[in-house]
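Its record is quoted verbatim for completeness.
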Amino acid sequence: MSATLLWLRLDLRLADHPALQAAIDRGHPVIPVFLWAPQEEAPWEPGAASRWWLHRSLAALQTALERCGSRLVIRQVAPGSSSLETLRTLARETGADTVHWSRRYEPAVIARDKAIKDTLRAGGMTVRSFNAALLTEPWDVQNLSGKPFQVFTPFWRKVSAGLELPPPSPAPQRIPAPERWPDSADLGSLGLLPTIPWAAGFDDAWRPGEAGAARNLDAFLDGPVVDYGDRRNLPAQRGTSRLSPHLHFGEIAPRQVWHVAAKWRGSQFMAEIGWREFAHHLLYHFPHTTDAPLRADFARFPWREDAAQRRAWQRGLTGVPLVDAGMRELWHTGWMHNRVRMVVGSFLVKNLRLHWLEGARWFWDTLVDADLASNTLGWQWCAGCGADAAPYFRVFNPESQAAKFDPEGAYQRHWVPESAAETGGGTRSAYPPPIVDLKASRVAALEAFASLRK
């Protein structure tokens, strides 16, 4: 009897899952599989924080599948093998004649998936891919000149104005199972969890999985969304949705958010969903930007190299309280408030004038919501070298940002208690002096950025 291999990647949920629903609709057994092949995503294979989240999310998905009479088949793709060969092996073992998966948009994954699709189809298999991660496909949106957008506001205006989406489908009660299941590796054998307990704070901060995503959305819509426009910039308060890792791992779909939060479609909150769409639009049309600036003139920017300053930034020991608070929040929880992300990013690329890729790679390894599209857009925005970027002359001042968005110093005191910010009292004896003069480094940055205009 024929069966469908449901190749799960960044779509780790059961509700509103087009590839899963189409597999069930075939009327044949469905075999959910997860292939661990990080080498196929190089040079941006999942970082340490992402691996922690992935382990927890897969564990939650295993439980959800078992409640539906199904299970998750896990295979580790060894060096020298490939996802293609593993899918072929699974097809032989199960008699599957069809493979379904949800589309991804990273350059290396697009190339791999295309090769797999072409090869399997040439061998007589049916292969179908589905949109499970975005409100609209990147290739479906063009500006008036028929080209990709590079400015967010007109992009989001066009997308949101004409968006008509069917209501999300509920999770299935039962998933048809094969008479005999193929062998599966144990989740723990993938080695996703750290061998030393650096992620202890993650467990306190997060509940990966579809149920955790739903709880976060419900909690946000029950209160913080009402004052989102004001509270979203205050790092000491829980005023944001914290949905970013759930969206990245596909534990919830933006289409679900669009419908559940229907009354907020014109709000700043939904514009943040739009920003994620914009990031994927740019990544698809400008895949080189993961490692090179969108603005070609920035290839000659005079970046500095200073390993000691980079390390101080990574460890939250710059002597600038708001910067250090953000970097410590990141290390402890795998996440950082978005306002603070802009501050620490500006500090790295403008005050320290270290390459934006230094920040992108650190965030990639330490963020639980590390997403190649959003990470690339965010860092090129900070550096002024990407689409809709912050102008080169905009340098975030950490002190004025702290005064405006953490006026009582609660956020800084929580993460950097030894800093003794002015609002906290005490002594700074245990806290290092600033590693750079904010005013002088701002002037140097403006001179360096202005040199590109000559």
